[in-house]
């Protein structure tokens, strides 16, 4: 289909190429190609998009990004630099490219102020944060965003009417040493990404983030980081056990998925799995994405364009849900028919 919208699409700063190359060596079978693609914000991306029927792309800074920096001043300075950099790079392509804010998550007021700055000044479409923020003198402290101190940030998202994308990052510090060091092949998509993000977002649910901020919209990649496959079991234990023991969530886990949580297809190109998620959370809450350059446009788009699903669901997942969530105006092929 034409006019697809994609929204988990990474870039990196050219001045940090040495770090980018080091990270690429950990997971990419073609590190030189990866470095070239992730540092390009316009030329290669738009060529790929034209070839594969993508009308609009929302860019975000690559993981682990600012969440890996445990010095608060350094993290904030880098976040501002990244946001100004991407805004300048995409300003000539308003009908093709948008961006998510990069935020330092050391301080909720500071994060809220930076979000407001880039949404109002540059028209950014929300923010993408790479799971917990490293903090403390040795980087072993982890900041979660599920206590009331962070409501000032969530209220800013609601006021600006933009979503929050909770993206994974690699385990570091003591978490790496204790859990993953002896089983490193499970780091990333095989397990650690879903492990981290599912803990974080379910913490947001159980610690009342959505009850206090009922209009907050949160996006999860990779078809929901395993949570949709456990929805029945989570709901059963929350409703039939945990609430009797004191859990005070105002709604069911399914209601939070219906009202507050979106999932994307980024890096998860299985028709069987997608159809399962459609049945569990409905096509109203699913968004198409690629996860470029960690994944290929051809793998994602060829799969999605030919996957067995209704024409209505393909249009909703491929572009219509994103057009509504991000309030997109005209962009390339936005009114094209599904093919």
Automatic annotation (TrEMBL):
Gene3D superfamilies: Metal-dependent hydrolases. Residues 41-328 form the Amidohydrolase-related domain. Signal peptide: none annotated. It comes from the Eukaryota. One of its GO terms (biological process) is secondary metabolic process. Pfam families: Amidohydro_2. Keywords: Decarboxylase, Lyase. GO terms for molecular function: carboxy-lyase activity; hydrolase activity. GO terms for cellular component: cytosol. Belongs to the metallo-dependent hydrolases superfamily. PANTHER family: 2-AMINO-3-CARBOXYLMUCONATE-6-SEMIALDEHYDE DECARBOXYLASE (PTHR21240), AMIDOHYDROLASE FAMILY PROTEIN (AFU_ORTHOLOGUE AFUA_7G05840) (PTHR21240:SF31). This is Amidohydrolase-related domain-containing protein.
